[in-house]
Prior knowledge:
Blueprint: E1 2-8, E2 10-11, H1 30-41, H2 45-49, E3 58-63, E4 69-74, H3 80-112, H4 119-151, E5 160-166, E6 169-175, H5 180-188, E7 205-210, E8 212-222, E9 225-226, E10 240-250, E11 254-264, E12 268-281, E13 284-288
Helix pairs in contact: 3-4
Amino acid sequence: MFCFKLWSQFGVFRDPLTITQNLTFPIPPKTTIGGMLASILGIDYNAYFNDPEYFDFKYSLVLEKPIRKKSFAQNYVADYTKGSETKISIMGKYLNTRKKYNEMVQEKMRLEDSTDRSKKEENFLMTADKKIETEFKKFEKNSDKFSKLLSSSFRSPKPIFRELLIEPEYFIFVKDFKYEEQIIPYLQNHFSEFSFYMGNSEFPANYRLLACKWELETSDILNTFTSKPSAIVFEEEKKYTNVYMATKTIGKREYREYKNLILCDKPIRLKDKIQTYAIKTDAGKYYCEFV
C-alpha cells in the first residue's frame, strides 16, 4: 500500500452518464486515480485500458477538507470554420453544375447551326438532350441547396451547465497496485512522465507522497465513504452524498463495474463494528473501506 496527498486550485471529474451537462463527482473515481498513476509512470491510456489486470488495485481516500463546488452556465463560441467549409462546398457545386449545364446548351446550339460537323460532334448531338436533361436536374438540386444556404445563418451552440470543484484536496490510498514498486521512486522524487492534472487538462494538479502504516482493526467509524448504506447510522448534523461511479475502464473509454458510494466530509458512524483498514499517516489516523 502507498499513500499520497492530491490537491489543485480547481478540479472536475466528469460524470460519464451526463450528456448535455458537465457535472462533476465530488471525489476522483478509481478510474481517474488509475489514469493519474499511469501519467506518473508514462503508460499510454491505450495500454492500460487494454490491460485486464491494471484496475485490479483497490483504492480509498479521505477528504482533506469539505467539498466546495461552483456551478455556472458556459456559452461556447460557435465553430464557424466547419460552417464555412460546408457553405463553400455547396457554393462550388452550384457554380460548377451551372457552368457545365450552360456550356452543354451552348454547344448544342452551336452544332445545330453548323453544316460541317465531325463524327464526334454528330454523336454528341444524338445524346445531347438526355445529357442536358441530366445536368439540368443536378443544377436544380444544387440550386435549391444554394438558395437555402443564402437564407440560413450560423447557429450558436446552447449554453452548457458546468460544475467545478474549488481547491479540492484528498488523501489517496492505493493497495495492490500492479506497478507499486516502479511508482514509489517517482512519487518520492515528485516526478511524472506525462502532464498531471485534476481530471481536466485545464487544471494542473500536485501531489506529495505520504508515509503511512496500516493494519486491520475493528471499528464503528469509517472515513469519507462506504459502499454499504444499510450499515450507516445517519446523523442529522452530517451531510451525506450518494455517488454512482465506475471502478474500471476498458477499450475505448468503456466504463465497467459500477459502485454506489455514500460520502460524508465527517466520519461516518456505523451500526456495528466491522473489520476495516486503519491507516496511520503524519496527518492522522483514518479508518477506510477499499473498492
